[in-house]
Amino acid sequence: MTSERVTMVAIAQAAGVSVPTVSRVLNGRDGVSPRTRERVEGLLRERGYRARHAQHSALIDVVFPEITCAWETEHIRGIEAAASAAGVGIVVNTLWGGGDATGQLLRRLRGGRTDGVILAAQSGTDAMRTALSSLNVPVVALDPASPVSAEIPTVDAANWAGGRSATRHLLGLGHRRIAMIAGAPNLRCSRTRLDGYRAALDEGGVAYRPDLVEHGNFDFGSALAAGLRLLDRADRPTAIFASCDRMALGVYEAARRRRIPIPERLSVVGFDDLPGASWASPPLTTVRQPLRDMGGYAAGALLSLVRGEPLTTPYVEMTTSLVIRESTAPPH
Amino acid sequence: MTSERVTMVAIAQAAGVSVPTVSRVLNGRDGVSPRTRERVEGLLRERGYRARHAQHSALIDVVFPEITCAWETEHIRGIEAAASAAGVGIVVNTLWGGGDATGQLLRRLRGGRTDGVILAAQSGTDAMRTALSSLNVPVVALDPASPVSAEIPTVDAANWAGGRSATRHLLGLGHRRIAMIAGAPNLRCSRTRLDGYRAALDEGGVAYRPDLVEHGNFDFGSALAAGLRLLDRADRPTAIFASCDRMALGVYEAARRRRIPIPERLSVVGFDDLPGASWASPPLTTVRQPLRDMGGYAAGALLSLVRGEPLTTPYVEMTTSLVIRESTAPPH
DNA sequence: CTGAAAGCGCTTACAG
DNA sequence: CTGAAAGCGCTTACAG
Questions:
Q1: Which nucleotides on chain D have any atom < 7 A from a protein Cβ?
Q2: Which residue windows are coiled coil (chains A, B) (predicted)?
Q3: Across all residues in chain B, what is the average pLDDT?
C-alpha cells in the first residue's frame, strides 16, 4: 500500500499502447481489438487500477432520521429496487447516528458524487433543506412528518383513508367502544389517521370519546402502557386501533398480561402492514401502507428530476388498504 | 436544465477571482479572505455548482443477497454508525433485486467511486469474489454462509456457543424433550447452532433424537409447519429451540393454533434477538447476536484495510449471549 | 490573501 | 484499430 497510485499512463506503458486506448477499454467503448482489450484488461486487474476521477456518480442519497424498524427497511427495499433497475446505487444516511451525516452528505453533494436526495420521514432539518435548495440538488420527500415546502415533490400514504377504513371495519363487526392509540401528535401522519378514525365514527353514528384516545410514540413500550390503561377501565373497549403495527404488538402484550384473548375478547387493528404483522399471534389485521412502492415511486421521481425532466405531479398520495387477518372478530 | 454545466471558471469569472481561489473555497482550505469566501460561496450556491470530478470517494459498499428482515437492518445500522463516524458513507446493494447489482458495483469500483466492500451473508457469488480480488479491492465478509477464502477477513458470531447456551438454559429448567427447528442445512450458521444444541444435550446426559429435529428455512411459514408437526406428536416436546427469532414466532403461532400456552405448556427459545423478540407476546427468550456490533466491527476492519493498515485478526467471532425473557419456564 | 503558471489524470476529436 | 495532439476541469506549488 506504499506503492504509488496506478494511473492510466502506467497501464498504457506496461501494455505498450497509448493512453487513449486504455481509456477506451476502461469505458467499454469500441474501436479496440479484442487482443488489445484483453491485454489491457489483464493489466488493469493485475495492477489494481482505480480511476482517480469519477465522472458521473449514478448515486442517490437517502436520509432517515434514524433506522428503528422495518418501516425504514421497506422504504429502502423499494428505493433500492427502483434505483438499481435504473443502474444507480443508493447511499443510506442516518441523521442521529452520531456522525456528522449532514456535513458528509453536503460534501458529497458539493463534490458531485451524488445526484439527488430522498428525505424520508422528519429527516430534513431546516438547515439541511436550505442547504439542499441552495445547491440546486433534486430532492424528493418521502412520508414527511410535517408539510413540506411546495417546491419539494412529496410521496405520502393515504393516512386519513387508512384510519377510516380500520375503524369502519371494527364498526362493521359490531364494535361500538373502539379505542385508539394514536401516534405522537406532532407528526402529520398521526393526526391524519386520528382524523380518519373520527370520521368513521361520525359516519357510523358513534359518538367520539376523547377519553378513549391514548397517545403513544409509535413504539412498543408506550403502547403497552396505553393498552394497559385502556384494558383496566371499567368500560373496557372491545376493540383497539393502534396507529402502527409496533404499537399493536404493545396492545397484544397488554392483553396477554390481562389474560384477555385476541380476538375473542378484544379486537386489534394496526397500521403499516410491516412483515411482522403476519408473524404475530394471532396474525394482525392492519392497514397496509405500500411502503415499498412508495420508496420506489420516490426513487423514480427523483431520477426523472435528475434527468432534468419536469415533474408532473408534485404530490402523490398512495393508496392504503385494509388487510384482514385474525386479530379482529365481532365483540363477545 | 438545458443550461451548460457550471464550471469553476464560470464561478471565478462571476466572482471576479481566479480559479484557484474558487478551488480553495470549495475545498474549505484557508488562505481566502472572509469576504471573498462569502461571495464565492454565494455564487456557488446560486449557480448550483457541482464538481465534475470527485476525487476521493469516502464510500464503502455493502452487499446483501436480499433484504428480508431486521437482520439486515441491524447490520446496516452498525455499519452506518461506524462508517459515518469515520466520515464515510455506505452504499447498500441487493443482489437479487432484479437490477444488475454486480455489474453496477464493479463499475463503481472500477470508477474509483467506492473504497471497499462488505459482503454480508451468502452474498458473494464466485464471479463477484474473483472480480473483487482481481481489482485489489479491500473486502470483508460478514456472517458468511459458507467458509470464505482465508484471504478475506471475516466477522462471525459465536453460533456454536449460542446454540449450546440456549439448550443448556432449557435443560437447566428441567426440560428433557427439547426439539429444535434448525435452519437450512446448507448454511454454516445453521449447522453450527445445531452442533451447539447437540453438545449441550450430550453434556446434560440427554440422548440426541434426530426425530426431534426439524429443518426450516429461517422463515415464518416453514417454522409454523414444523412447529405444528412437533406439537401434534404423541410425545410432544416441552420446549422448542428455533434457530432464529422469526422461526420462533412461527412456533408461537403453531402453539396458539393448538391452544398450548407459552411458557406454561411450551417453552420457546429463539436466536438473534432482533427488536421483534422483545415485542412478542410473551417476550421471547433468545440468543443475542451482536448484529450491530458485528456490522460496526466489519466496517472498522474494512476502513483500516482501505487505509492500507495490515489486518491483525483475519477472523473474528463475536460473543453471543442468552437473553432470558418470558417464553421459557420449567416444564409443567 | 491572491493569481499566473505548470501540472495531473483523463477524454475527445481527428488523422491515418 | 490506434495514437499524437489538443483540451477539460481541476489542483498544486510558487511568487508576491
A1: 1-5, 8-13
A2: none
A3: 89
